[in-house]
Amino acid sequence: KKKQRPVIQFDFSSIGESLVTTEKILEAKIQEYNRLKEESRNPEGMLEAALHTLSLSRLVSQGAAYGGRETKGGYAGKNDIVTDAHCRVSESYLLLGMITQAMQHALEGSARSLESNRNPSPQVLTCVGRAHMATGDIKKAMGLFDEALMAIKDEKGEMAIEQCEILCEIAEAYWRQKKHRESIDMLCDVWTVQESKYGADALQLVPTYLLLGQAYTKLNEHDRATDHLFRAIRISREHHKENTKSFAEACVLLGGCLS
Questions:
Q1: Element (H, E) at 158
Q2: Which tens digit of pLDDT belongs to each residue from 213-230?
Q3: In 116-258, which residue ranges form alpha helices assigned H by DSSP?
Q4: pTM of this prediction?
């Protein structure tokens, strides 16, 4: 008599429970990465946290596909969580001056978007643009930044807060080309958008005030520089952020302007 093959049953509930746990760990690692990024003091720690998010995001993505469901936090805009993680890793490598590795992860993030039949999101375009700018290919970087900026404006309007990060990158690109006034104009655009969204004394404006202070300092326009640096320092103190790199840099620059 022919034996019947045993029926193998998978316990998808256990997969789901494990997936939820991994998602929670991933969320915690992303929060750790964001905290380290804000403090700007530990790029090695940022890289370690970013690499952890990449490993965890792959597990979550694979588990979600196997279990037949979308992850809880599976998409941020038009990116999946693995693409986002590649961007974090690329950013961390750039801070450490490891341009080859940064470019590799930026391109992997872009390729993953294309493989999923999605156009690269503004975040991915900006990530790849940063990597190209680090190699000295300013023209390529500017093209990617412009593409990212137009995508945000088309989707969310001229005053979308999401454009500020890209505008700062464009300002940096202008500065590297010694187009100092264009760079400052771009930073002033960032200031306008952020102020309309958060208010003039919001913590989110501190990096912009610092960048403007740096720019005016390099042009020897110390009165304008001190105005922005004083704002950066005052707001940081009001929010108890004296332990950040931005606060330290603002204090050093202000001391130079006043000496």
A1: none
A2: 999 998 999 999 999 999
A3: 122-135, 138-156, 164-176, 180-198, 206-218, 222-238, 245-258
A4: 0.79
